[in-house]
Write a structure and sequence with these properties.
By secondary structure, this protein is of the alpha/beta class. The protein has one domain (3-122, 186-259): Alpha/Beta hydrolase fold, catalytic domain (Rossmann fold, 3-Layer(aba) Sandwich), CATH 3.40.50.1820. Helix content is 42%, strand content 18%. The protein is built from ten helices and eight strands. An eight-stranded mixed β-sheet has the order 1-2-4-3-5-6-7-8, with helices on both faces. The longest helix has 17 residues, at 125-141.
Length: 260
């Protein structure tokens, strides 16, 4: 993958190219840019699709502590590197945290938002404790003992051998940095009204990580026109478990922006 030197970090990215409107997609925690392969295939004939590996995942290294504000600046820096002035930003879970912050940092550069199974707040303290226990087990014994449980939270109750292999290769020090970013994030719910661009909020009804109620809070808080689409039976990674429905919704939203 090519890289862009942004904020002292080499950010790995993929770019479909073309002269269509740009869409930058940011992945979820423990994932990488490839989680959007099916979206890239569906969108690229009409849109320039840019995906990236966030710090600590895929081909992008994490060498020191970072926040989702830093990842938002990374995403905007990749756009700078590619000479893209404005784009639709999309993200799943962690990627949504990044996209919201990028829209707050540079609203003039964000044409719209596609927010997939995400929210604006912090982790529920009751859930956070169980996540910390999972991380401790992972760090001590590797992902093997917990990978099926982790996959059930993110991907649904199916074996995902491809991701298991990637998790086995995950650097523990980088995982710790990424986990602290996740758990220590700030709450931007009170600032959602500052985001005035159009938004599509997509959420799986079987999301085991973020309840639908928080997607409703997100939609209601955004300052611009925002639609909430529920994907029946969709997991936390509904774009992976229900790609046809998610792709159709994304295409409809993007075409509406282009013609509007």
């Amino acid at each position: 993958m090519p890289t862009a030197e942004v904020n002292g970090t080499d950010i790995a990215y993929a770019d479909s190219g073309g002269d269509g409107p740009a869409v930058l997609l940011s992945h979820g925690f423990l994932m990488d840019h490839s989680m959007f392969d099916q979206q890239q295939a569906a969108l690229a004939p009409e849109f320039r699709v840019i995906t990236l590996d966030a710090r600590g995942f895929g081909a992008t290294r994490a060498i020191s502590a970072f926040s989702y504000w830093d990842l938002a600046r990374d995403a905007l820096g990749v756009l700078d590197h590619l000479g893209v002035d404005t784009a639709v930003l999309g993200g799943m879970s962690q990627g949504g945290f990044v996209s919201l912050r990028a829209a707050l940092l540079a609203p003039e550069r964000v044409r719209g938002l596609i927010l997939l199974d995400t929210q604006a707040g912090q982790e529920d303290p009751a859930i956070a404790e169980s996540y910390q226990q999972l991380e401790a087990t992972w760090l001590e014994h590797g992902p093997g003992p917990v990978q099926e449980l982790v996959a059930s939270i993110i991907l649904g109750p199916v074996e995902w051998a491809e991701w298991f292999a990637k998790w086995a290769a995950q650097d523990p020090a980088e995982l710790t940095l990424a986990f602290r970013c996740l758990m220590d994030r700030d709450d931007v719910t009170g600032r959602l009204g500052e985001i005035s661009c159009p938004a599509l909020v997509v959420h799986g009804t079987s999301d085991a990580a973020i309840p639908v109620a928080l997607a409703e809070v997100l939609r209601a808080g955004l300052g611009g026109a925002a639609e909430l689409l529920l994907i029946e039976g969709g997991s936390h990674a509904a774009n992976l478990t229900h790609p046809a429905q998610v792709n159709a919704a994304m295409l409809g939203f993007l075409r509406g922006l282009r013609s509007g």
